[in-house]
Structure formats: C-alpha cells, structure tokens
Amino acid sequence: MAKNYYEITLALAGICQSAHLVQQLAHQGSCNNAALTVSLRSLLDLNPGSTLAVFGNDEANLHLGLESLMAVLNSGSRQGAGAELTRYTLSMMVLERKLHGNSAALNTLSQRIAQLDRQLAHYELESETITSAMAGIYVDVISPLGPRIQVTGSPQVLQNSQVQSKVRATLLAGIRAAVLWQQVGGGRLQLMFSRQRLLREAKTILSRLGPAY
C-alpha cells in the first residue's frame, strides 16, 4: 500500500513540535504557548477522525513543528540546537516503540489519560494542576520504559518544578504524536531513505500557511 506522506509528515511535525517546545522550556523557562496548547490538547483525543484532527484540524497549529521537522531533516551537525532537536525527536520515537511493546503500560496510559477529562471539567488545560497530572503520567508510565530522555538547558531553569512539569507533559505529547506516526505508516527508515520526500511535503504545507507571527 502506498504511504500517505501528508499524514506521516503531520505526525512527524507533531513529534518535532514537542521536541522544540522542550528545548525552549529547558533553555528559557517559557515557550510558544499557542503551540504548547496544541500539543497538550493532542493528548486528549484518542479516537480522532483524522491525523489533522489530533492537532485541532488546522495545519497552522503545526507551524512550529513543520519548521522544526525541516531543521531536523536538514541538520548535519552533531552539536548545537539542531542536534538537540534531533536527539529529543529520536528519543521520543524510541520510547514509543517501548510503549508499543508493553500492553500493561498502554492500558495504564489510556486509563490515566481518560482521568484527565474529569479534571478538565474543573481546570484549564494549561493550568498547573493539569500539566502536573500529565507530568505524573509521564513519570509513572513512560519513564520506567527507559531509556530516559536527557533534557539539557539552563540548570536554574530546569530546577523550577513548573518547568519540569511542562517539559514532561510536552514529552508525553510528543510520544502521543509518535504513536500517531506509527499508526499512519511512519517508520525510522523514512528518516534515512525518504528525507527529501518528507522535506518536500513539509515545504508544501508551510507554503500554504505563510509566515508565522
């Protein structure tokens, strides 16, 4: 069956968006809030009607992720910001594979995400309560699967418990996108052998969106 590179690219952009947000949070203590909302909200729809529906049914919601995907695909360096983005992206893919092979963890994950819905009746998505709950899911369900993702940034920033929660919640959203990527036919080999195809697809989507403000 022919691969749907549009859907694969959207899901990959979702992973890369999380990677970029983690990078921003770790270095600055803050991040692109609109993109963060899209990523966190993607955790809540476990039976979406389409790939784009996971990200609010709007390509523009993945602007940061599409740009980050292009940076990852174009990155030849093993150091600096591009290498960090690539490392986070690949690490989330590795953890998704570990999750995929662990039915107990998958069951716990879906139960814990279902519980978030109840909390969202009382708290905003970006509230400390919800990000802490999402971070707790990451710590309890994803971290034990190993290997742990080493987040690098400003030591002072990373000591802040609210930043820690947002980083973990964002990593959880990235793993959600990695699950989606596998579901729509994504695979690690594409990053090696279909790089130009993915780049073209990302460029095409970005050309429709115009500049981000």
Automatic annotation (TrEMBL):
Membrane topology type, per the record?
A: Peripheral membrane protein
What is the official name of this protein in its record? High frequency lysogenization protein HflD homolog
**Where does the UniProt annotation place the signal sequence?**
none
Lineage top rank: taxon: Bacteria
Family to which the UniProt record says this protein belongs: Belongs to the HflD family.
Q: Which InterPro entries match?
A: HflD, HflD-like_sf
Give its localization.
Cytoplasm; Cell membrane
Gene3D superfamilies from the UniProt entry: HflD-like
What HAMAP family has UniProt attached to this entry? HflD_protein
Keywords recorded for this protein, A-Z: Cell membrane, Cytoplasm, Membrane
Main localisation, per the record? cytoplasm
Pfam families hit by this protein = DUF489
Coiled-coil positions? none
